[in-house]
Write a structure and sequence with these properties.
The structure holds two protein chains of two kinds. By secondary structure, chain A is α/β, with parallel strands linked by helices. Helix content of chain A is about 35%, strand content about 15%. In chain A, strands 1, 4, 5, 6, 7, 8, 11, 12 and 15 form a nine-stranded mixed sheet that branches. In chain A, strand 16 and strand 17 form a beta hairpin. The chains are: A alpha/beta, B mainly alpha. At the A-B interface, helix 6 and helix 7 of A face helix 16, helix 18, helix 21, helix 22 and helix 23 of B.
Amino acid sequence: MRNCCRRDFLRIGAGATFGAAMAGRLAPLWGQESPAKKAKACIVLWMAGGPSHIDTFDPKPGQATGGPFKPVETSVKGVSIGQHLPKVAAQAKHLALVRSVTSKEADHDRGTYLLHTGYAPQETVVHPAIGCVASKEFPAAALPGFVSIGETYNDAGYLGVEHVPLVVANPDDPAAGLVVPEHLRKRRWDARKKLLDAMDTSFAERSDKAAVDEDVKVRARAEALLGSKATEAFDLSKEEEAVRAAYGDSPFGRGCVLARRLVERGVRFVEVVLDGWDTHEGNFDAVQALCGTLDPAYARLVEELAERRLLDETIVLWMGEFGRTPDINGANGRDHHAACFSVVAAGGGFARGRVVGESDKEGREPAKQPVTVPNLLATVYAQLGFDPSKTYLSKEGRPIKLIDKGAPVRELLE
Amino acid sequence: MRWIAVAALLLAAQDPRNPIDDHVPDAPACSDEEFLRRATLDLAGVVPTVEEARAGAKDRVALIDRLLASPEFDAWWARFLLELTTERRAARYDSHNGRALFEWLVARMKERTPYDRMVRSLILAKGTANEEGETNFLLRYQVKPSDITGAVGRAFLGVRLQCAQCHDHPFDKYTQDDFWGAAAYFARTKRTYVDGDDGNMGVVDIKKGVMRMPGAKDEEEDEEAPVEERRKVVPPRWLSGKAAERGVAMREQLAALVTSPEESPTFARAIVNRVWARMMGRGIVEPLDGFGRRAKPSRPELLEALAARFVADGYDLRKLVRVIATSKAYGRSAKAAGVRALSVDQLAPSVVRATGYGQDEDGTGGEEPEGMMEEDEEEGDYADYGPPEIWPSAPRTMRRALAQLNGGYTHDMVEQGARFIMKQLGKPVAMKHVEHVYLALLSRRPAAAEAESLAAHLKESPFGRAALEDILWAVLNSVEFNTNH
């Protein structure tokens, strides 16, 4: 296992963007057989709607585009972020703040697709979301490889339906549907499954056996999960009240507690959705309220992962489908803006307390080191131990790279 | 013997030889009960009732004709057209009113409007979203010339034009000039907001307006952006190369061009291929919008024959469905036909009818199953079955499997269903109750071997109702119920 990952990693190291320096730097690390710098899991905090970069991680005080918020100092000297993220500011020492992400997709669906796949939507092929790739590439375990708390783009495309995430629709009751009701347990549940198995077996013989078996495979995984003790991962009542409270009293906060619990128990990829960032009107009130939800949850998640020594092997990504216009519109809102926005990474070998790239003084375009989305996701894949240039076959037999025209970005890493 | 010959001639005149049978090799036929369920699901979008299943369908052609004449056929195929024209944004949205479009399509299906005429109406639509349902096709695409052109290509011509929006694709026949030339027919069509009617929008034509090729940095055409000199004006010109005529309204010309066999040779083939895929599980051309230069039809002669027949039949969707449904290929065995996952729109009404779920105590009234028309998919009663998927072969996801095995919806439905059936058939639970479940959901009686183990299960359970619930649960979760085959 290690050998294969190492080989993949070195091959990436030989790529153009990574450069020889990185390969040189890595050699001693792997020479020591240290597994510490490879991520084993990833949590994406998905800011649906497209969060304003200027009002969160890229403040522009004194500019007409800056808006009314003041910047707040962080735990990294000389780095400030938006006023309403004070707890996150205190955790900035763990964060790599990318202020120069750039894309051309300023439509919600297209941007969401790009940030989840590294590709703009194409007519001929459906690309798998990062979490589906993690589900495919990491070995299967009792819990699903990919859990989505709330929902955004999560098509598995050519990887097949078995890598679509388990979706937790309501983080306030995450175990709903995962625990078989008391009166059905044991004897009666087994009797039901026996009836069902007999039906499917006989139907497979009478029809298209391969297709039926495929369908039964997905159902068998669901059945195994229902019968497994592993579902206690979804039971938030097992967490102490004080531990939960630190994440804030919100569905998103509870989603973040759940994400941490799942990663602790071997889930490889968790996405937690916070919706409401599409602030065409009343941007500042909305962003302030959203930050009130985001700040304790995000900050505590990073802090607690660090306390539990999980941050080194867990990537935490904060991102949405794009940023928002520096110009403030007539409805005190900000519109879609993809040319320059912020993404924040932590853990899993990403740099700590570093700002990467820079936007121009009004926050319109990258001024230094633009980072494309394929490059960003290639970095995530590489840290998870997957070769971003790995080629899969589409359903039509067409070869498709995990990431096309992208390679890991050295500066994002430790 | 002369009368036999005359009768044969009459029959032949009434029902000319099915063109499909000349092109698809024979396969063993399915049983009558399999055919009844398959055809009812494909033509009416629901499983047959217990009574229909009990009566059976020895005369397959009579069954097809009965289904074709039913209101369920109109609604089910209007949903197909709704999916086609809205790209699965079928409910009511800020941008458009999917329900109004659906009602318009149902009315067209009911009055048997030819397909080409429907498409012309969708392209020519004017008026407001809530009043003129057909405007919601253009509104779905924000009345943006580039988006509508992409949708016209994909939905009506089976080609992907979007790629040509930004660059000339080396492998496809349409260039950037072709794309913007086609889009130029919509240069004078605009979206309007209706004063005093919140959320209602409309489509109007203005007198002047030209299409400009977007600049390198500005891929979206934006009427408010200052017009830059470098953005050249693109005159309207159809994909066939035919230039626009003067003095005729642009959209009038386009509607005629899109539906013309000469100017748009893929118009009939694309819809024939989609209907074929919906009923047979796979298109003759795949993907369904892959009628580009590299398209490789699996049976080119069949596609041509079906398209020719469709045109000769006056673009009548009913007749097209009839040709396919009465072919030997359609009636082949489940082994040869394979399985196709049911959509939530087929599952929901089938389950409600069989179990009385969500209905009043006497089994009437109550909530109508909404399926994909549900305005808020996440909160709808049927959301637990996963996202609405109307296309064939949408497989069962983990989420849907979990919901079906152990969702609160499933447990409620199973309990209510057992009560509902016992109310009709009385106590105690016996094999006739089990047979009812099989007929209601699978359109067949239990086979001999099954009947034995089912009877044994009934005996094991001290309370007949619990045993019936178990059986209902197993049937609802079975692949046999969840697929068409």
